[in-house]
Amino acid sequence: METVLQLYFVYVDDVVIASPDLNQVQQIKKHLDDAFHIKDLGHLKFFLGLEIARNSSGISMTQRKYTLELLEETDFIHCKPAKTPMVTSKRFSRDTDEKLEDISQYRRLVGKLLYLTITRPDISYATQQLSQFLDCPTNVHMQAAHRILRYIKAAPGQGLFFSATSSLQLKGFTDSDWVACPDTMRSVTGFCIFLGSSLITWKSKKQVTISRSSSEAEYRALASTSCEI
Q: Distance between CA atoms of 148 and 144, rounded to whole angstroms?
């Protein structure tokens, strides 16, 4: 008997059901309705800030509404857009500048940016860098967070596209930023993995140990990517 793949995403009282067999989806919805009296919203269009659109070409996933609300909330909706999410030559540390008196605003902003990386891998590295200083942010860190806001202002509807005609070839790309953290002297691993032309997973994370050379940092990044694959 052939097994049909089914996926369930549950958050409190919101449920997403995914399966190539529509008959089984209907059976599951009927079973849930008999037990809990659910409200069927039809094809997936919006879920936890994610906007999903589909057609014969594939599925697109963005957080445009979430991004615009974030820009409105932070008064950056009319700001001048930035071309990059951060200055690549910048190295952040705990003693970069004066500490912020109220760190709650910084924590909220970085938390919202981290959630935005679900569909915006292009800000993953910059956001990862700023998330290291949630306990001791400075004015420089806040300015860097504001630059990310200016960057996403340029294209608030940018997101991911999963092609319906994409091949099943798995491709991985990896790199490392040697001694990216001047406080701990640890490097950062970055990778992205594609299924055909569709980006399916990515990460930017500080390495757990100190690499004594850029080559060692590259090998550690390659090992992490291999494990992910």
A: 7
Q: How far apart are CA 19 and CA 5, in angstroms?
A: 6
The pTM for the full model equals 0.86
DSSP 121-180: GGGHHHHHHHHTTTTS-BHHHHHHHHHHHHHHHT-TT-EEEEETT----EEEEEEEETT-
Sign of CA dihedral 188, 98, 148, 200: positive
Question: Dihedral (C-alpha) 119, 46, 169, 114: value to the nearest 10 degrees?
Answer: 20
| 54 token code pair | 């589909």
Is residue 198 a contact partner of residue 183, using CB atoms and an 8 Å limit?
no
pLDDT digits (tens, 9 = 90+) for 159-181: 999 999 989 899 999 999 998 88
Coil, strand or helix at 24 = helix
